[in-house]
Every structure is written in structure tokens, then in C-alpha cells.
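Self-study notes.
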Amino acid sequence: MAFLQRVLNGGALIEREMGSGRKRLDLGIRFRGRNYPIEIKLHYGPKTLPDGLAQLSEYMDTLGSRRGWLVIFDRRTEVAWDEKISWCEETVANREIAVVGC
């Protein structure tokens, strides 16, 4: 959150565990009247990506957002950093989701 606050330079509201319907979004940024949802996951296997995309898509629907970010942290020691760090774009129900792997 501190990093995002510095990047946004105080011009936005950053909420942790932002209410989205009956559930909680990990990070929500409100900037110039728009919502920017960010969901954070730990890698626990092959279901992490599809489950994270579905969950974020629901939040985006509730917030009326067309773009969101899914950040997946991979703590496995047997996987090289080159395989962990990634950026790709996914589309779920006409919503654009940037998937960042770390």
C-alpha cells in the first residue's frame, strides 16, 4: 500500500479489504471516480489462476470495473525466478484482467 500511495502521490484513495458486495477485495483504488480492483493470491496449485480470475471478475462486476489486476505470489523454492515472474492479459466475461506473477 505504501508503494501504491507513493506512485499515486496522494491523488487517490487506496483501501485494503475493500467491501465489494458481501465479499472483500484485497486492494481497491479509487481514482478520479473510477475503481481499480487488485486481488492478491498465493500460488497453491493449478486452481490458483482460474479461481483468482473468477473471484476478481465477480468483484469487478460489483464495482462496475472493466479492468482489474490479479497478483499471484509463488513461494515455491524449486521454481526459478524466471518462471515465477510473468505478465499476461486475460479476458473474463468481457473484463480485462492483468495477471502478474511474482
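Second protein, same conventions, sequence then structure:
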Amino acid sequence: MSSVTLTAECVECGAEISVPADVMQGEILPCMDCGAELEVIALEPLTVDLAPVEMEDWGE
């Protein structure tokens, strides 16, 4: 049994990213080429964008 994978293009470096077929909107995927964190913003068509950077508030 083979698992189906989709592909997306890294918006940072243009590399091809393998995306599991069961990916969910909002999921964060790493780019193995440049290390960017990509967020799945739409499923049809599959669209990724740079994930927002969340800052630690350390309880403030």
C-alpha cells in the first residue's frame, strides 16, 4: 500500500515540498531546503505561505 503525497512550492526558496495527502488547513510544514516554516492556508487548491512568527510572552 503506497501513501499518496501532494507537492507544494516553498514561497521562500522555490523548493518542492512533499505534503501528506491527509494534511489539514493550518498545519505547519518545514521546508527541508531552507528551513522555512510554511502554513497550509488552503486545501483546494493546495496553497502554502510563510507561517506567522509567534513570540513567547513568558507569562507577561
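Instructor comment on the second fold: The longest strand covers residues 37-43.
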